[in-house]
Structure formats: C-alpha cells, structure tokens
Write a structure and sequence with these properties.
2 copies of one chain form a homodimer.
Chain A: H1 2-9, E1 13-18, H2 22-33, H3 35-42, E2 46-52, E3 68-70, H4 73-79, E4 84-87, H5 94-105, E5 109-112, H6 115-132, E6 136-137, H7 148-155, E7 161-167, H8 170-182, H9 186-195, H10 204-207, H11 210-224, E8 234-235, H12 243-252, E9 254-265, E10 268-279, E11 291-298, E12 302-309, H13 313-330, E13 359-366, H14 371-381, E14 386-391, H15 395-400, E15 409-416, H16 421-434, E16 442-447
Parallel strand pairs in A: 1-2, 1-4, 2-3, 4-5, 5-6, 8-10, 10-16
Antiparallel strand pairs in A: 7-9, 7-11, 9-10, 11-12, 13-15, 13-16, 14-15
Chain lengths: ~450, ~450
C-alpha cells in the first residue's frame, strides 16, 4: 500500500506501442503483470496509453480497451501524449522508419526491436536522438532476450573489445541442429521450422544470413566505436549445407554453425557471416536449436559468453521492458552507440589475411584418373597446402561401378592448411573450368582454438 | 579535439579509491588507458583524485603521484573532495564498513567489490544510501567480470525470476577441475591453487563454500526481492570430495561442481551451496578452471547463461568501471536492490522437499556379511529407494583378501531415488551407529534435467 501511494504520486512514463504482433502482445501482458514491481524499480509508474496496429479487431489475448487506438503508427508517434514510443513494426523503411523519425522529431524517447532499421539508418536516427535529447534504445534488436547490447554498451565500457562472435539467428541454428540430430536435409528442416513458426514464409532474410549481418553490424559499431556499416559484412547463408558436410564436420570434431564474427585488427575491422566449423569443445558449438549465443573477447575481462533465447514474444518483450525502465529512471543516458553518433568514423575494412584454421572444401569430382590430381595441382598453384583429402564413394556407387571408371561424380573432401578464402575459391574456379569438378563447390571456414 | 573540449567543460566525476591491491592497481591503470573513451560515454571526465592503502611505498606498477594520499581510508571517505568512493579493502567489517558508511553519510556514491560486507550489512547500507540519494553499486562483488548484477537488476526487470544457479567461486572450480583432469587429490590441487595465487593462504572462506554463500545471498535478494539473508544459506564446501567421487561422477555421466543455488517456490526461497553432480551435457558442467558461470531461469526470457572470469584484477576492475560510468551518467538510479531497501521483507525459507534427482552416497563399508544389508535396510526404514549399489573393491584389496572376510573397509556407492538430504543423512547416521559403516559418509546431490 505504501509503495502504491508513493508510486502514483510520481509522474508516470507514458508509453505508445506501435505494432502489436507477438512481441507487442507479450509486452502489454508483461507490463500489466509486473506493474507494481516495475513501478518500484523505475521510481514511477509505467503506463501504456496508446497503441497502433494494422488490424484493430484481431484477438491478441490482451484487452486493448484502456489504450487510445491509432490506425496509423506515425500518427501515434506524432500526436499521442506519450514520453516513449516502442516500435515493433519491423522493416528497414516504410512505417517503422517514419514512426521512429516522428517520435524523435518531437524529442520522444524510442525503444525498438528493429535490427533492419538500425542497420540501414541507425547512424542518422542516433544523430537525431542525440540532438533532441531523446533515448534510442534497442536491446531487443540483437539476440532477443540476451542482454548483449547492455553488456557491450555498459558493462564492458572499461574494455577494449577485440572480437565478437555470435549465433544470432535462431532459425539457422534450429535448421543446422535438426540436420545433425535427425539426419534430415536442409529443405526438410526449413519446412519444419516454418511449420513451428521459427521461419518466415519467405525465409531468405534468415537463411541467407542477412538477419545475422544486420545484428552483427550493430554489435560491431557498439563494440569498436565506428559507424554501422552493414555493407561491409561478407555474408554467406546456410542453403548450400548438405548432410555430408554435417557428417564430415562431426567426424572431424566440429559442428557447423552460422556465425557472425566481427574482429578488430590493427588494419581495420573484419565483419563476416558464414557457416563455420566450430570445435565441439567450444561454447558456441554447444548452442543448439533456436537458442542464440554471443562470445566477446575484451582486454580487461578476457572472454565472456552469453547464451539465451534469440527470439520469441516474451523473451524479446523482456528486453524491451529493460529499455523502458532504463528510460523511466534516467531518460537518455550516454550516446546511443559508443560515442556521439555525429563523431563516429567509418571503420576501415581489414584486408584479407590467411586464416590459420584452414578451410573444409567439398567438391563433386569426376570419378576418373587425373581428376584428383587436377584439383590438387590447382590448389598447389594458388599456394594452398592440403592437410587431407578424403574421397567417400557411397557403397551403392561402388557396387554400380566397381572400377570407378563410369564418369560418375563422387564427393571429395579437402582440408586446407592456413590460407585465404579468396585463394581457395580462385583455385576451385580453375578446377571447375578444367572440367573435372562439378559447379558450386562447398567451402567452409574451420575455427581451431 | 572537439570531444576533449566538450568533455573538459563538463563537471568531472571525482573518484577516491580505498584499497590498492590487485583490483585497485588494475582500476587505476584501466581508467587512465580508457580515459578519453570513458569521458565520451559518461558525458564527463572520470578523474581519480584520491587514493588510500596501507603501504604507500609498495610498487604497484602505477604512478600515484597525481592523487591525494590518505593513510586512513575512512579519512578519505570523510574528507576527500570526491563524488564517489570505490571500496576495494575487503572484509565484512572493520575499515571497509567504516569507509562505506563514512562515504554514504555525506551522500557520496559508493562502488564496492566487497561481497562479505554486502552479505552482512547490505540492507543497512542500502537504506542509508537511498536515504542520502547516493548510489551503492556492486557489480564486482559477484562473479568478478560477469555482468550478473546488471543482468538481474536491470535486464531482467520485466521477469519473475524462479531460479539462479551458479559456479561463483573460481578457487573451488579450479580445484575440482584439476582433480578430474589430472587425477590429483583435493590437497594437492589446493596447494597448486595457492601457488598460482588462486587460493588464499587460509583457504577456508573459499573451499568451505562461504564465499559462494555470500554471493548467492546477494543474488537471491536482487532476484527475489527480499532482504539479504546469508544465514539462510545451507553451506557445504568441497574438502570432503575424493578422487573416487570424481571418477564415479564421471562414469555416471556427471561432473561435480560447487553450485550456489537459490530457488523461489510457492512456500519460500531455498538457498544452498553444495557440491552437486551436474549432467555433463548441461552448460554449468562445462565450465572449467577459475571461470565462473551463472544460470538464470526467468518467466519471460526462459533460460539465460552467463560465463566469464570470476576473479582477477582487470576483470574485477572492468565491473567497477561499469558501475562508475553508470554513476557518472545518472547518479543513483533506482533502488539498490529490487525495491527500496527499507521495504524489503524477510524471505521465507522454503521447507525441505524431496529432491527429484536423488543423491549419490559413498560410505566406507565393513567388508563382511550383513554390512550392505544393514545400510540398505536403514535406507528402507527412512523410506529411501535405491536406484543402484556399486561396491568397488580395489584389485589390491581383492588380492590381499580374496574371500572378503578380513574386516577391511571398502567404498560402496549408493544412488538414491527422490528423497531429501535430511532423510539420507538420518539413515546414514543410524548405519554408522550400527557399526558397519565408517564415519563421515559422502552425500552429493544429483541434478538431472
């Protein structure tokens, strides 16, 4: 009773929520459930006063009658009597961008879960937020319920961060985990992910690595103190991963993960998203299913690993609420990224260097004399040494063609020593032109520790 | 240049550091190294102006000439012209407590790494801090460089936390890891830990579980919103763990970890620190050496795991700096614990319940007829069902005494089904009294998932 009276006497933080999908519905429910506790911590009540979504009539399992309804989220951002707009619309442009801009233009704080928006326009929005004295908070935009933004932005402020590596897309990690655990093809696992709601009808954004790249670009900016540069991320998705790659990785002591990695070197920053063979003993190799994980190397703490849910309504709403309470306590606190946005510089792209773990290469090789020699000599010409060559003819193929002279193709696995991906791809291109190797060879980076 | 001018024009946050051991020296070095970046994020310069330690002449690898020296930390807290005192003295009472009290008494913010102080006096200090409008920040007090306080206090504010389980003492985890990896006794591993500086000359505080208990009590207060109650923690250390326990755990698919666990139930809060068999597939089982880890179950995010360095000068200083920058940005922000300290209630202790994982029991059994029957019937009397009984006579013992009738003692392992630790210990006490069982049987909780 004492609390309630004290809390009510303070000015509430008035919230407008734009977008009432899964996360929006979770947010309204959790804010109502935790109202008293949040009021105590925030020092003032947190009151949702306005909402906006496309369809007013849809049943979201929450009572919307107490909130002012806006058909247009931009109108909400422009007109509603709110101190903070929560943008949960999604998409890099269109109404999401217009909503955030409208809120910032009148100095209203913004909380967003929108990585695409930040990856494309984060710098401009941050400049505007800082100019208006408004907060632009986005814990929910990267790794869902894992507090990685707060960790990098606040907890590691005393550190020079040297590397961030993460499993940042639950859809991809679910598919790769299922492929390994249940011996299924990429296509089957994708279909299952879609059925379970882990993947969109159009899965391009997730499985081709773009979602991971957006999140990585945001993390890299925060960690290294430069402008967000999503175009600098080298992106490769998981569509080309086959069962044989999963099985071979397993035999070699690795697990294939879609990693987003940003590394600071003396010559610049490298940002890449690609399927990677991670040693099974490493923490990231053990993260299975839709779970996300982020591994941070920093000079003072050494290594820090955070593991948790990368998506889901409640988990994402949990991060949104953390941002809201921070704003309720202290408004806009510190620059949006690592330094005032207008002062952030372009990050130099690190030049391509030999990767000390080498590469896993799978080619479909014409099963006849001279074929293997051709690939190996193309590799040698490019200065690439091979650690091993494994030719795996299936028992069926061996039965059909005991002499191996039919001209059928067989998968051959090459493991290289230290080299660059460019060198490997260049050599493979020549081998394909030689006519001994099928098109689209598979190249996967190996991380050894 | 632009930054520098802008920053210098703002009022600096003036810091006094009390205690210049490993963490203090790291703190001074890191604050100097990161001065420009910290000023940008904090929006004002962070200036150490005063220091205090016992020995002014000791070489700490940092230049102290720019700071006002105080022989007495309490004098620093009382008289130095500072906005924030960092207490790195240690100990639950004495100069550490007097220093923090003196700082708070005049409304000066406090950052501390002192878990013993908080476990004993955290509630009183929080009341005083909140009354004076001063911050009392303590990220460094629990799990060193892992941002677990910020995560529980800020990131999970929208959640109801149901359980926190952690490896919170690097010394114990180092010893248990070495015992497993190198087949060494507890005593040998402790000696090595002392040689490497991982354990104190008097290791009681660490190896008997008290350090873990202090950290757990602080986490439980934050997570469950009750008063810190270190006396409520059931504490057992790792001195009694023998090689045979490590090997048997391994064979059963577990690893022995000293866990601190706080669980919220409908009937109250259970807090315990004890050696625990954790399934090897679980994240906490994989944390080896001096590394710490915390696993949090919460209703909105589900499960979150943080892994990182639990000690070390730089890692701990990293957490101190995060607290300092928070204070520089927004002073005291929100209550010290989950709600205003004066309003926090005593947490009910959860009544003892059957533990669904059962227990591992090792007894030294007199190697003669009737001995095993006696133990088993004492267990049965107490309503305890046994999943398995394994008697492991060493090959040497079998050679010396092929009939097994010499009256020598042999280790026998019992695995129970669901039961309480009290029931197990009661039955064992009777079995000891029967004369068939050696004193001090080993009882280890098994966690199955």
């Amino acid at each position: 009773m004492g609390h309630a009276i004290r809390t009510i006497m303070k000015t509430p933080l008035r919230i407008g929520v734009a977008g009432l999908g899964t996360v929006g519905a979770s947010l309204l429910r959790l804010l109502a459930q935790r109202r008293a506790a949040l009021g105590l911590v925030a020092g003032r009540p947190i009151d949702v006063v306005a909402v906006s979504a496309r369809d007013r009539t849809r049943d979201r399992g929450v009572d919307l009658s107490g909130y002012t309804w806006f058909d247009d989220p931009v109108a909400l951002a422009r007109e509603a009597e709110v101190d903070c707009v929560v943008e949960l619309i999604g998409g890099s442009d269109g109404p999401a961008k217009a909503t955030v801009e409208a809120a910032l233009a009148r100095g209203v704080h913004v909380v967003t879960a929108n990585k695409a928006l930040l990856a494309a326009h984060g710098m401009d929005l941050a400049v505007e937020a800082e100019r208006r004295g408004a907060a632009l908070a986005f814990e929910a935009a990267v790794a869902g319920g894992i507090p990685v933004i707060k960790t990098v932005r606040e907890s590691l402020v005393g550190n020079e961060i040297t590397q961030i590596a993460g499993i940042l897309n639950g859809t991809c990690n679910y598919i790769l985990s299922r492929m390994e655990q249940d011996n299924l093809s990429f296509e089957k696992c994708l279909a299952e992910a879609q059925k379970l709601g882990y993947a969109e009808a159009d899965p391009t954004f997730d499985v081709d690595g773009h979602d991971t790249a957006h999140k990585l670009a945001i993390l890299a900016s925060l960690a290294f103190g430069g402008r967000i540069d999503a175009d600098a991320v080298r992106v490769e998705g998981i569509r080309s991963i086959k069962q044989i790659d999963i099985r071979m990785a397993n035999r070699l002591g690795y697990r294939i993960k879609l990693l987003g990695v940003a590394v600071r070197t003396a010559d610049g920053v490298e940002q890449r998203v690609c399927p990677t063979m991670v040693e099974k003993t490493q923490p990231l190799a053990r993260v299975m299913g839709v779970t996300n994980a982020v591994n941070i190397d920093a000079n003072a703490v050494g290594e820090l690993t955070l593991v948790g849910p990368g998506a889901g309504g409640d988990a994402t709403a949990s991060s949104v609420i953390a941002d809201i309470v921070d704003i309720a306590q202290a408004g806009s606190r510190g620059p949006v990224f690592a330094a005032p946005a207008g002062d952030l510089q372009h990050m130099e792209r690190a030049p391509v260097k030999d990767h000390p773990g080498g590469y896993y290469v799978r080619v479909n090789l014409l099963d006849k004399p001279g074929a293997a020699a051709s690939v190996v000599s193309r590799m040698a010409e490019a200065g690439i040494s091979l650690e091993s060559i494994v030719q795996r003819r299936s028992p069926k193929a061996a039965e059909r063609d005991p002499t191996g002279r039919s001209g059928a193709k067989v998968p051959v696995i090459l493991i290289t020593y230290d080299t660059t991906e460019d060198a490997v791809r260049g050599a493979l291109q020549k081998a394909v032109a030689d006519g001994f190797v099928g098109s689209s060879p598979q190249v996967i980076r190996i991380e050894r520790n």
